[in-house]
Design goal:
The protein is α/β, with parallel strands linked by helices. It contains 21 helices and 14 strands. The protein has helices spanning 31-34, 44-52, 71-76, 89-101, 111-115, 133-144, 199-203, 212-224, 243-259, 278-286, 301-304, 317-326, 346-357, 374-381, 401-415, 418-431, 447-464, 471-483, 487-508, 521-529, 532-536, and strands spanning 12-17, 58-63, 79-83, 105-109, 125-128, 153-156, 182-184, 187-188, 208-209, 231-234, 265-270, 289-297, 330-337, 361-366. The strands form 3 sheets. A 6-stranded parallel beta sheet has the order 2-1-3-4-5-6, with helices on both faces. Strands 7-10-11-12-13-14 form a 6-stranded parallel beta sheet. Strands 8-9 form a two-stranded antiparallel ribbon. α16 (418-431) packs parallel to α18 (471-483). The chain starts with 11 loop residues before the first strand and ends in a 6-residue tail after the last helix.
């Protein structure tokens, strides 16, 4: 539903989502293979806010991952709304500076400011927490007065809007065809209390839910837009946070897929103990889920207790991964180096895990302490929070910092050596892809999909299969997939590996920090100042 307040003024709201720097997690190096793709995933939060605004107010939405907001758009607006994550902080401040230069009042909401409001003293209004009573107070203020306040105003949500009352995100405000994948939310919150995670503090431990009918209506809105992404990611903090609700929802999702001839594939994130839920896994298979992101964090089971993640050991780790693969789910994994329990053997244990698990995509990061987490609180008590931009983490590790970074470099070099990653993809051909359901051809034979497939196929054959220095292991893996009739796997492995290999090589050259999610400050500055023809070289085959 929209905001129910009666407003007396007509306002124009410009919602601007900040750009990400090229990163591991957003597959930015692979966009040129797709033809027209400019960004990773539509931002749910800001699209939700846009949809919630009073009907009399006009909203425009700009994702600066697709294009930069223009001076004319800032001039059009009465107020500028911004949202983002910690890693987007420099870009968030930049949008605020441009809006103020245009004389506009600015509002910042979302996860970063909700966790660290002190980082954003330059914004006029801070919206802390989720959509709710603070959002209504903001509407009341802007309806009454657009003057910039003399001092910053903080509005914090006490009474959250129930997910069942959420409006559908304003998907119509963005060109979905420019995104690699779509986004959808069914639940919010996670019952676990992992030491390094801020989700329980920000969104609660009792998962809150949308109705299956809401979810299906949002899917209808996504597929109604020409050129929509073929994959939709459930952005739920933990897809099985409420197992009963997930089990009850999935038959609706299966029925929606059948009714629409399976136009979409799905992905999600969940805890590894979902391997104990065969009924849910079978329903996910029937609904055409392809990938699940699992925060494995460390293969050292004794270390899991130290980060309050013992639930990862509910099923032996390799057995759990094999179970997920048996339902056609390719596992991607989060890994953390720099835990207090790490030893000189941790690097070897991780490399052994990479090879034995055969998980193709692993986000291997150094431990970072986020505000509003038990880790932050503990390290603050122990005087182990550091704020040196020259370092790769804000954590004072138990082991020497340079040793931990060196372990990270060797681990990513091993994981994303071309021969290694394509060998892991070959393993997925054997144990995962063949376990997926066969969906109707009718749902896939759209003009958009055919065009997208032709462009992607041509670019993979040329850029990866002909001109790259990793063409030999690619063709070995592609041949293995084709002999099994897994044509789609060839596209997937070429697309994913191309990005991972290129990004890793940049990281090993020192262009990215060890969080794997943002370029170093000096690299950002070089990118900002380099001539266009030098910047274009980043997208040429290597």
């Amino acid at each position: 539903m929209r905001c129910s307040l009666t407003v007396s003024s007509r306002r124009r709201v410009l919602c601007v989502f900040p750009a990400y720097t090229p990163s591991f997690g957003t597959f930015s190096h692979a966009y040129p293979l797709m033809g027209g793709v400019k960004a990773f995933m539509p931002p749910q939060g800001l699209l939700l806010i846009a949809a919630y605004m009073p009907e009399a107010w006009e909203c425009r939405f700009i994702d600066e991952n697709i294009r930069r907001a223009t001076p004319e758009e800032f001039a059009w607006a009465d107020a500028v709304f911004v949202s983002g994550m910690h890693i987007q902080a420099p870009q968030i401040h930049d949008i605020n500076t441009r809006a103020h230069a245009a004389g506009k009042v600015t509002v910042l909401g979302g996860p970063s400011v909700s966790g660290s409001p002190e980082k954003y003293p330059d914004f006029d209004y801070l919206h802390l927490g989720e959509i709710g009573d603070a959002t209504d107070r903001l509407v009341e203020i802007l309806d009454r007065d657009l003057t910039r306040p003399l001092a910053q105003v903080r509005l914090e949500t006490v009474d959250r809007l129930a997910l069942a009352d959420f409006p559908a995100p304003a998907y119509e405000a963005v060109p979905l065809k420019r995104y690699l994948i779509g986004s959808l939310q069914f639940s919010s919150g996670c019952p676990y209390r992992c030491e390094f995670c801020d989700i329980p503090q920000l969104y609660g431990r009792q998962p809150r839910l949308k109705s299956p009918e809401q979810m299906c209506a949002e899917l209808d809105a996504i597929v109604a837009q020409p050129g929509h992404p073929a994959v939709v990611y459930f952005v739920d903090d933990n897809f099985i946070g409420n197992r009963k609700a997930t089990r009850d929802m999935l038959p609706h999702l299966v029925e929606w897929q059948k009714r629409n001839d399976y136009p979409l594939q799905f992905a999600c994130e969940a805890t590894l103990n979902m391997a104990k839920q065969p009924e849910i896994l079978e329903l996910m298979r029937q609904a055409n889920f392809m990938t699940v992101f699992v925060g494995i964090e460390t293969p050292e089971e004794d270390a899991l207790a130290g980060i309050d993640k013992k639930h990862n050991a509910a099923v032996p780790m390799y057995e759990a991964i094999a179970t997920l693969n048996s339902y056609g789910l390719e596992v991607t994994s989060g890994i953390i180096l720099g835990l207090d329990t790490d030893t000189e053997k941790s690097e070897d244990n991780l490399i052994d895990f990479i090879d034995r698990s055969a998980i193709p995509v692993l986000t291997i990061n150094l431990l970072q302490a986020l505000p509003k987490t038990p880790l932050w609180d503990r390290l603050e008590r122990e005087n182990r929070l550091v704020h040196d931009v020259a370092l790769e983490s804000n954590v004072l590790f138990k082991r020497p910092h340079d040793d931990v970074v060196a372990s990270w470099r060797r681990a990513i070099a091993h994981a994303y050596a071309p021969e290694k990653i394509f060998e892991r993809f070959k393993h997925q051909c054997d144990v995962t892809y063949g376990n997926r359901i066969v969906t109707p051809t009718k749902g896939k034979l759209t003009v958009t999909n055919l065009r997208r497939g032709l462009i992607l196929g041509f670019n993979i054959i040329t850029r990866v299969g002909l001109f790259s220095d990793y063409r030999k292991p690619f063709w070995q893996a592609a041949g293995h997939a084709l002999r099994k009739g897994q044509v789609e796997a060839v596209f997937n492995m070429g697309f994913v590996a191309h990005h991972l290999i290129r990004f890793t090589r940049e990281a090993l050259r020192g262009e990215h920090n060890a969080s794997f999610y943002a370029a170093k400050a000096e690299q950002r500055e070089r990118d900002r100042n380099r001539p266009w023809w030098q910047a274009a070289r980043r997208f040429l085959p290597t």
